[in-house]
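Hey, can you fold this one?
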Amino acid sequence: MIRNIFDRPLASFRLGGQRIALIPSRMKRSGDSFSLALPGGLTAILNLTSPAEDFWHWTVLLRNDGGERTLQITDLCGLDLTFPAEGEVVWESLRGDSCGAASFLPLREALTDGSLIRSEPTGGRSSQETAFPYFDLTDGKRSAVFAIGWTGQWYAETERRGNEIHVKAGFSHCDFYLDPGEEARSCGVLLCCGPRLTETRQAFRRICRDKRSPAASTDGRLEIPLSLQVFDRYFRRNPFWASEEGQLTCVRAAGEIGLFNTYWLDAAWFRDGFPTGVGNYDFEPTFPHGLSPVSEAAHRAGMKFMLWFEPERVNAKSDTAREHPEFLLSDGNPANPDFLFNLADDDARAWLFSTLRRLIRENGVDVYRQDANINPLPYWLHNDAPGRTGYLENRYVTGLYRLWDDLLAEFPGLLIDNCSSGGRRLDFEMMRRSVPMWRSDTGCFPPSEEKPTYLWSQNQILGLTRYLPYHACAVWSEEASSVRSAATMGLACNFDVLNPGWTPDRAKLALAEIIALRDLWDGDFYALTPASTEKNVWAAWQLDRDGDGFCAFFRRGESPDSRMECSLPAIDTGRMYQVTLRDEDYIKHVSMLHGSALKRFTAEIPSPGGSLILEYHIL
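Sure. Predicted structure:
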């Protein structure tokens, strides 16, 4: 579908109204950088790497190396690519996160001659509500997966013109100049090409895991948190929990279970509480010794300590607002109690880095969780200088990347959890540096008739695992169907451990199964059913890693069918397999099956609302 990439325009922008196309073969090359000198001292640098066959990553940097202000820079597109396509062309992506039934549901649309698809998130958060920064195209012969790397307000347009496809992605707001010494960057682009779409998605996910994720520094292996996290169950409901002794009690409960690798404390530790205390970095009086007693107890129990922060949102009554008003951005609404911490300001970012560094070090934090419950776009636009629309956003987003890069350099082995009211900033620049352990705020609620969060979790796994190598969320119940609906290789367990009548037996079975299957999530993902909001259907998926794998089957509560017949991909019909079935009660049935029989598998779940795990190992 896409060939001769070095001879094609890959990106573009307008300088003083004139379109500048960036074609690698027509630029000066130095290693993986391609530069183009332009009038007025402006230099355009295209950084283009290919970490695997048929996989490319590029970003454009514009730098003013001259002595005068540049002409206006508009329509800065990190992706501006045209390529041939034949026959029917299909575009697919996901919805963004909206904390509900629609979060990460798949989208599919045929591209006919003259049709145009435009994607754009809301509020300056890259995977919020109306768009998702990953999409793919296929014409039946070849396929391509695209990903946008920009943690701000991007847009993408895909247009068909006869037998050509034009794909363009850039900034929704871009009309600025650069003064001498200043620079700005484009959104980043990942492109993976291949034959069949399923295999291309798998290659994309695999390469992102190995080369463009935190696992890249650990030989492709990453242990993400399997944690006890009871914030949503007890916050504002159990004052004892929000204290040093309450936290130590929870740590002891997690340690007695013995299967968690992480203890997770969310937003309940800073003075004045959540959300009015955001911007305070001292402790509630209920934590008289800080959080080191909690982290030390977790470490003694063999667990890492994970701690929540929200540095980008600052309450007007907080210490940060009172002591450093120069670090804050307003949206112009005097009734809004929230400011945006200005990561575009070097002094502000240095102060924040120093503050976070001290808290991480003094409190034994192993996993840094950064939340962002604020839409930054109104703040960026309100504070743009005349003639510089979009420049503040550019500086802010790159400042966010610098902050995280500095933390990772300061604390080797630190894992960052990326949260933004759930999964509203899942672009690949964030995925390079972090894992989303809270893929949606649907994890804040137990399952109910109005909010069937177990069903939503199934759909989120069916959607997100197309593209993301790592993601996780929360579960409120130890029941097998609930845990299996939410779990990937990690999970946040909102178990009722402070209830005197609570027993850990069921939880131990659930956690042991997650651990047994955990490494298989590094394999290739196959959706065995489409994502659906209907309650009368089944949901199922398969993970396969070099011949070993598992399938998860769910008979939803109103499904009349006790059986589901399917053809399992990635099964060698010439080999023997050891197969283990685990039902809703974790009762195991082990057998030997020939691959030809395993491939044509019929799952059976007698009771509506139940689940089944099929685990297989090649012999």
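The chain has 13 helices and 35 strands. Let me know if you want another pass with a different chain boundary.
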